[in-house]
Sequence to fold (240 residues):
Amino acid sequence: MTTRQRQPQFLRAMGIDVWVRRKHRVRDKASETSVASRASVAPEFSAAASAAVAQMDWETLRATVATCVRCSLHKTRTQTVFGVGALTADWLLVGEAPGVDEDRKGEPFVGRAGQLLNNMLFAMGLKREDVYIANILKCWPPKNRDPRPEEVISCEPYLKRQIQLIQPKIILALGRVAAHNLLKVDMPVGRMRGIRYEYLGFGIPVVVTYHPAYLLRSPREKLKAWQDLQFAKSVLESVA
Ligand code: URA
Fold:
């Protein structure tokens, strides 16, 4: 069965009722590729500490994150939310930060947004176990407020090391916070869609789509998310 034949069922999995034939216009513009420029290392995370994280294996990294006190979020968290999935996944999905459900369970995207994310994966013919899922922050920001710059900078070496260890073929940035912090650009998500970015000069393509929590609030945008997933798939196929 071809992907095209399977689309209606997959669209339903994402809660999209309408069958739309129009093919997504792929904007694979090399000229728009952005290699993120890196901000200097914050005092909260010294160069030496970052260098140490950059050498860690999975076990050490996991243990280091679990006991991290680099920013004040350690005072309010129940536990850290490291990430979940296949350690050699082609797909890395990056969200914003754990919510209250994730803080309790210690796993990313387990609440309502997580259920939609699972459906989005299913729509692509993937299961949660096939991909790796992580967040910009490993700790829950109280009241689900936006991550603060110092928290992002403190946490960044951990995600960067996860990316180095996984070596995904593609990174899907879920929402504004993930997109802005992975790519160091400040544009509305709507303007970042359909463009192939690149992570930190690692040569790993990054595609931006809406955050599942946003899609729950704005279900009419699900079709655009579906188009983004198709675009991401085409980018992955072009590098695979
Ligand atoms: N939203 C996110 O960005 N990440 C999670 O893990 C859960 C909700």
Remarks:
- The longest helix spans residues 149-166.
- Residues 41-239 form a domain with the Uracil-DNA Glycosylase, subunit E fold (CATH 3.40.470.10).
